[in-house]
Every structure is written in C-alpha cells, then in structure tokens.
Amino acid sequence: GENVEQHPSTLSVQEGDSAVIKCTYSDSASNYFPWYKQELGKGPQLIIDIRSNVGEKKDQRIAVTLNKTAKHFSLHITETQPEDSAVYFCAARTPSGTYKYIFGTGTRLKVLA
Amino acid sequence: EADIYQTPRYLVIGTGKKITLECSQTMGHDKMYWYQQDPGMELHLIHYSYGVNSTEKGDLSSESTVSRIRTEHFPLTLESARPSHTSQYLCASSSSGQPSFGNGTRLTVT
After folding, report:
1. Does B104 touch chain A (CB under 8 A)?
2. Beta pairing partners, A4
3. DSSP state of B70
C-alpha cells in the first residue's frame, strides 16, 4: 500500500545550525505534500506545504524541496532556534480524490542552546 | 489557527467503561478524521468521514466507532474500554486542503 518514509527519527542540532528532514513517498501520483510541527501537548500544525508542480518553496527560515522523479521531499530549517524543537511530520496526499493523507513516522528535533 | 476542538483533553477511566471522545469544528469542513498517535509519535488513521452520514474505517483497525450526524461534529465511541486503548487520539478536519488538527485527547484506561 501507499506509505511515506521519514528520516531521521531524531535529530539534534546546535542553535543556529541547519536541520534537514527527508521523506520518500511510494505513490508517484501523490500531488500535495504538507509539513506539520507538533509541540508538546498540542496537535500537529501546518508549517509549510508544496504541490507537485513546484520544485521548491520557502517561507522565512523554512523551505521545502520536492524531487518528483525520485519521489523525495525534504524540509530545511535554517538558523535553528530553541523554539524549533518539536516533532515534525511530513505527509503525502493520495490523488484519488479521497483526500486521504499518509503521514511519515515523525522526526523529533532538538535544538541545543 | 484552526477552529477544531476536542474534549476532554485528558481522560483516565477503568476497564469496561463506555467512553465518547468529542470533536467539533466551526470551519464548515466536509471531511473529518480520527488519528491514533503512538507514544512513539506515529499517526495512524482509524476513521474518516467525507460528509454527513458518511464514515469509513481507516488504515489501522480500531474497536472504536464514529458517527457524523452533523457537519461540525464527529464523536468517537469506545463501548468497552481496555488498557490497549490507552493512547492519544487526534481529530482533524479539512475541505479541499490539508487537515487541521485539534489538540487531542489523551486517554488512559486502567
């Protein structure tokens, strides 16, 4: 069945460094890829998304890249800050019109001050 | 910020009790979802709905049931809670875009 692999499962970086989280999806027809940030005690919140007709999207310190050929997409956080510490999820939307989202297994990011 | 509400936030209950987890959204979204989140972080879809009177089982088998009598309301019921049901339950809703999540209900069955 469809699945999304996410790596790494945990990531520790020094404040000010960059963090990269990578996902691979299995269904080549997937056409929309949101990224979520989940802070302790809260539900996941959308932070950035990308559609299949775009290769890269940036929003301040956050960027997402998509390689449709390789079925890879990645989240890049630059100049990390302690408040970036959270669990991050990638997701892929199945294209069948059912609006089902397949989530990655999550990455716990720790930014060390 | 998403207008989707889950109650209660925390629930501790004994084995065999019937429970209902509430989820409401004020955005008029037609699609609603329930996810079960492991302590290890993974999100598993257990139920979804595309509109009133529409409910489907998700990818992870669950003993819970759901109903969708009103657009804004998507409650989840466990007829007889067991310790294996201990988990975080997240509700979400969407229209044509990505799901918006509530803050979850953390259920502990003793």
Report:
1. yes
2. A25
3. B
Q: Note the pLDDT tens digit of each residue in A49-71.
A: 999 888 999 999 999 999 999 99
| Rounded (10°) CA dihedral B88, A9, A87, B81 | 0
Angle at A92 between CA A91 and CA A96, to 5 degrees: 145
Residue B15 has φ and ψ, to the nearest 5°, of -60, 140
Both tokens of residue A8?
């790494």
Whose CA is closest to A103, among A91, A88, A95?
Answer: A91
pLDDT in tens, B19-53: 999 999 999 999 999 999 987 788 999 999 999 99
Contacts for B45 with CB less than 8 Å, ≥ 6 apart? A100, A101, B33, B34, B35, B58, B59, B60
Q: B interface mutation test: which of A39, A45, A101, A105 has the most B CBs within 10 A?
A: A101
pLDDT at B75 over 60: yes
Using the beta-carbon criterion (under 8 Å), do B43 and A42 form an inter-chain contact?
no
Q: Of all residues in chain B, what percent carry a pLDDT higher than 90? A: 83
Pair B26, B2: CB distance under 8 Å: no
